[in-house]
Design a protein that fits this description.
Elements lengths: L3 E3 L3 H11 L17 E5 L2 E5 L11 E9 L5 E2 L9 E5 L10 E9 L2 E2 L6 E3 L3 E2 L3 E2 L3 E2 L7 E3 L2 E4 L4 E3 L4 E4 L4 E5 L10 E4 L2 E4 L7 E6 L11 E5 L13 E3 L1 E6 L7 E4 L4 E3 L2 E4 L5 E5 L4 E3 L2 E3 L1 E6 L8 E3 L2 E3 L5 E6 L11 E2 L2 E2 L3 E5 L6 E3 L4 E2 L10 E4 L6 E3 L15 E3 L1
Parallel strand pairs: 10-13, 11-14, 12-15, 13-16, 14-17, 15-18, 16-19, 17-20, 18-21, 20-23, 21-24, 22-25, 23-26, 25-28, 26-29, 27-30, 28-31, 29-32, 30-33, 31-34, 32-35, 33-36, 35-38, 36-39, 37-40
Antiparallel strand pairs: 1-41, 2-3, 3-6, 4-5, 4-7, 7-8, 7-9
Length: about 400
């Protein structure tokens, strides 16, 4: 089992501040704060319970429930103190889909309010079954879906069709099967709707694969985003894979992690192919990739992306064979905007230009090329046709930039 170390204590500090933000001065005669607060999410509701904390039934004690939406300010949900030691918070859809709600409860006796209980955080939605022997297909009627704990698919695919939303909580795992012999569809996590990881860097989510007897080299699962909901860099909505460990991707070129007709964002995550070769990781749309660690794969930019919003920044790339560190294909003009690929730590000796035509310069300044030569190091260029395009390495870095890769460590 892998362990994770987060390099930031921001989440802990925010929880501590939240827990005492509105209750800093608790009177000496206040009742004790409730303890053992729990939250259970379901479609359209989050149920809070603190009934096992203390026997309040023999005293004239009531309770207030407070809720924070995302990173907002705590707001009291109870119009007046309630007598029950539980509370059902109704969540509307679609406004409440994918929103993390954080709660605490106080006790009130003779008009005096206690300090806050511990906080709990939850999201509403239909819980995905823990075991899916025939695969799993989301149903619009029960969307959104939430993955918590470990969800195992033992046969078939995990399908997220159009109109469906799936959210991954802290420490959530989707465990896919290895493709059986002769099959091209099983073992596929296929996103046509929305997939969004809500996990924190201190408790990242995991998407992986398994096989009876263990996975061999080149075995694993495939991850496909086809016509999925694109990430919107303006409001942050859409498909977002953040704080996620994606490992045991099957060996393949372009179809293992397929992106077509959509532009998801990958951020602060590990993307690891289960192979002793270098796969091709294709970016054919305005994909955003930042602060990721990519192992056993060479990023490939397909076609002209200069106006697509494509960015690839602050990543660590380890293609395994230490040969090709970056590829460009099928463009007749400058394929990326200036600064679109910058601040990265590449390992490899060659940038490959395949099926490229025309005379232009590809801007690749501001990257570290640890496999290159010279001072600062820079890779060579390989051309597979008669293209006269060039690559600008003039501002190559002498060392890996600060803050490159995820802000949590995979041990």
């Amino acid at each position: 089992m892998k362990h994770f170390i987060a390099l930031s204590v921001g989440l802990l500090l925010s929880l501590l501040l939240f827990g005492c933000s509105d209750h800093n001065n608790v009177p000496a005669n206040a009742p004790p704060a409730p303890v053992e607060l729990t939250a259970t999410g379901a479609l359209g509701a989050i149920t809070l319970d603190w009934g096992n904390s203390i026997d309040y039934t023999r005293a004239a004690i009531r309770f207030n429930v407070y809720r924070r939406v995302g990173n907002g300010t705590p707001v009291r949900r109870t119009a007046s103190p309630i007598t029950e030691a539980h509370y059902i918070d109704t969540i509307t859809s679609p406004d409440g889909d994918g929103v993390l709600y954080t709660y605490y409860v106080t006790a009130v006796a003779q008009g005096v309010e206690s300090g806050p209980s511990d906080t709990v955080t939850e999201v509403h939605g239909t819980r995905v079954p823990a075991n899916n022997p025939s695969g799993f297909t989301a149903d619009f009627s029960f969307s959104p879906y939430v993955v918590e704990g470990t969800v195992t698919v033992d046969d078939g695919n995990f399908m997220i069709p159009t109109g469906c939303k799936v959210y991954l909580k802290d420490d959530a795992t989707i465990d896919m099967p290895e493709n059986p012999a002769g099959s091209s569809t099983a073992g596929q996590l296929r996103v046509i709707g929305l997939l969004r990881v809500l996990a924190s860097s201190s408790h990242p989510a995991n998407i992986t694969a398994h096989k009876t007897g263990g996975l061999g080299a080149d075995e694993g699962f495939t991850l496909n985003f086809v016509n999925a909901v694109s990430y919107d860099p303006i409001d942050g909505s859409g498909t977002l894979i953040k704080n996620c460990w994606i490992n045991n991707l099957k060996q393949g070129h372009g179809t293992t992690l397929e992106i077509a007709n959509c532009a998801p964002r990958f951020s602060n995550s590990y993307i690891i192919f289960n192979t002793d070769q270098a796969c091709t990781l294709m970016f054919p749309t305005g994909v955003i990739v930042d602060h990721c660690y990519i192992a056993n794969a060479c990023p490939r930019v397909t076609s002209d992306q200069s106006a697509s919003g494509f960015t690839f920044s602050n990543n660590i790339v380890r293609p395994n064979d230490a040969n090709y560190c970056l590829e460009f294909v099928n463009s007749t003009t400058t394929p990326i905007a200036s600064g679109a690929i910058a601040g990265n730590d590449f390992d490899g000796v060659t940038v490959d230009l395949s099926v490229m035509t025309g005379a232009y310069t590809i801007p690749l300044g501001g990257n570290y090329w640890r496999g290159g030569t010279g001072t600062p190091p820079a890779p060579s260029i390989r051309r597979q046709n008669d293209s006269t395009c060039e690559v600008d390495f003039d501002t190559a870095l002498n060392a890996a930039p600060a803050g490159v890769g995820p802000d949590w460590i995979l041990l």
